[in-house]
UniProtKB/TrEMBL annotation:
Residues 82-101 have a biased composition (Basic and acidic residues). It comes from Bifidobacterium imperatoris. One of its GO terms (molecular function) is cysteine-type peptidase activity. Keywords: Hydrolase, Protease, Signal, Thiol protease. It holds the Pfam family NLPC_P60. This is C40 family peptidase. The keyword Hydrolase applies.
Length: 245
């Protein structure tokens, strides 16, 4: 009985082995028939890689090489407030000097145009002019060519002899220390007052005032062109003569 059981077991193992060997080839064959192979075509791509080692630039320098200093750098320079103030002051002084030079030149040119300028002064005016009159005459001559009206001229001439007065032309009849001449004579230093000149004095006011300097001439402010000039006495327009001793 025991022997039969062993034989039965051996037979079963042999049968199982036989079935296994029969199944594996069949499975392999089936697997081979069901496999799908897929391929994909990619375009050719070529990339050139740089040789960074070969293209590197050397930064080696000599140990004693000069790299420059602060003075050699091109750095924009800024001014301090003190430097700006000094520069502005210098510019203002230069402009003032330029204007002064231009003014001096203008006055010189105006004076040179006065061909009829007299040389009368206290020393050669004779007994007909007092020291005060001569001082007024000298001052008036120095203003020939200057731009000013008739009243400003006479006021400056009076100031040269110590008299402080300014007003409209007809008001110069009231100059301190003066008196109206009634005999029709003229002396150097006399103040000539005109009325109703109809603007012939070159000014905007119809009345006019001038300073007599002798020789039938008077110095007029605000004359043609608005400047001080030496001209005649305009006897037809002269109305009042004021004399200061």
């Amino acid at each position: 009985m025991k022997t039969n059981s062993v034989i039965s077991s051996v037979v079963a193992v042999c049968a199982a082995a036989a079935c296994l060997f029969a199944f594996v080839p069949a499975a392999s064959a089936a697997s081979t028939q069901e496999t799908v192979t897929s391929t994909k075509s990619f375009p050719a791509y070529t990339q050139v890689r740089k040789d960074f080692t070969a293209e590197a630039t050397s930064t080696e320098v000599d140990s004693d090489a000069s790299w420059g200093d602060v003075e050699s750098l091109n750095v924009p320079q800024t001014q301090s407030q003190a430097e700006k103030d000094a520069e502005a002051q210098k510019k203002a002084q230069e402009e003032a000097a330029k204007k002064a030079a231009e003014q001096t030149q203008s006055q010189s040119q105006a004076a040179s145009r006065s061909d009829s300028r007299s040389t009368l002064s206290y020393s050669d005016s004779g007994s007909a002019a007092s020291a005060g009159a001569a001082a007024s005459i000298d001052r008036a001559y120095s203003l020939i060519g200057s731009s000013m009206d008739c009243t400003a001229l006479v006021t400056k001439a009076l100031a040269a002899r110590g008299i402080n007065f300014h007003g409209w032309p007809e008001e110069y009849v009231n100059v301190p220390g003066g008196y109206v001449v009634t005999d029709g004579t003229l002396e150097p230093g006399d103040i000539l007052i005109y009325k109703y000149t109809n603007g012939t004095n070159g000014g905007v006011h119809y009345d006019h005032v001038a300073l007599y300097v002798g020789g039938g001439k008077a110095i007029h402010g605000g004359w043609t062109g608005g400047v001080v000039a030496l001209a005649g006495t305009l006897p037809n327009k002269l109305t009042t003569v004021v004399r200061i001793p």
